[in-house]
Design goal:
The complex is a heterodimer of chains A (114) and B (113). Chain A is an all-beta fold. Helix content of chain A is 0%, strand content 53%. In chain A, strands 2, 4, 5, 6, 9, 10 and 11 form a 7-stranded mixed sheet that branches. A 4-stranded antiparallel sheet of chain A has the order 1-3-8-7, with no helix packed on it. Chain A is globular and about 40 Å long. By secondary structure, chain B is an all-beta fold. Helices cover 0% and strands 53% of the residues of chain B. Chain B has strands at residues 4-6, 11-14, 19-25, 33-38, 45-50, 54-58, 61-66, 71-76, 85-92, 101-103, 107-112. In chain B, the strands form 2 sheets. In chain B, strands 2, 4, 5, 9, 10 and 11 form a 6-stranded mixed sheet that branches. Chain B has a 5-stranded antiparallel sheet with strand order 1-3-8-7-6, with no helix packed on it. The radius of gyration of chain B is 14 Å and the shape is globular. Classes of the chains: A mainly beta (114), B mainly beta (113).
Chain lengths: 114, 113
């Protein structure tokens, strides 16, 4: 149980375009999902907390107008990177809570902006 | 500042040995503690969680928690080359109702055949 999927697994886009990443909890309902970013050889950095039916809570320094998060249902959250630039190239990972504070991670999306 | 500290390593142990990974945290209100394993290029995988002081065993893994010392550790017995990965310690920040976890930077473990 507690399986989280992400789509796409890899995406390459041109600078200035937008990219949408989907995160789904497959076998449980997740009231809370989290979005992380991880640069090479660095730890996970929490970007935002997403609650179903309400606005996401962004961490300090994360631009909410650039990283749009929608959590329309108990099994789906989306992250849209708007007007992507090469510095946005990173590994984006979502997670969802199934029980208490246990977070289960999706497989991640590797974004490359050219 | 809520912090979770880990020795970045690399920690190198021979196959069959016990690997000991350590983590300290700064928030005394933290109640939930997690160990994740992350292989290179992959996302983290939850391997252990512990909420109470003492030891918790699951197969070859033992998590140890000492809230008074603000210390949590992970022991891997009979280490295998497949255990080679980065191990992330994560701590719930302790604020009531918050499900956020703070992650350490991870300890890279290498198990040599």
């Amino acid at each position: 149980g507690a399986v989280v999927s992400q789509h796409p697994s890899r995406v390459i886009c041109k600078s200035g375009t937008s990219v949408k990443i989907e995160c789904r909890s497959l076998d449980f309902q997740a009231t809370t999902m989290f979005w992380y970013r991880q640069f090479p050889k660095q730890s996970l950095m929490l970007m935002a907390t997403s609650n179903e039916g309400s606005k996401a809570t962004y961490e300090q320094g994360v631009e909410k107008d650039k990283f749009l998060i929608n959590h329309a249902s108990l099994t789906l959250s989306t992250l849209t990177v708007t007007s992507a630039h090469p510095e946005d190239s990173s590994f984006y990972i979502c997670s969802a809570t199934a029980v208490a504070y246990e977070q289960y991670f999706g497989p991640g999306t590797r974004l490359t902006v050219t | 500042q809520k912090e979770v500290e880990q020795n970045s390593g690399p920690l190198s142990v021979p196959e069959g040995a016990i690997a000991s990974l350590n983590c300290t945290y700064s928030d005394r209100g933290s109640q939930s503690f997690f160990w994740y394993r992350q292989y290179s290029g992959k996302s983290p995988e939850l391997i252990m969680f512990i909420y109470s002081n003492g030891d918790k065993e699951d197969g070859r893994f033992t998590a140890q928690l000492n809230k008074a010392s603000q210390y949590v550790s992970l022991l891997i017995r009979d280490s295998q080359p497949s255990d080679s990965a980065t191990y992330l310690c994560a701590v719930n920040i302790g604020r009531s109702g918050s499900e956020k976890l703070v992650f350490g930077k991870g300890t890279k473990l290498t198990v040599n055949p």
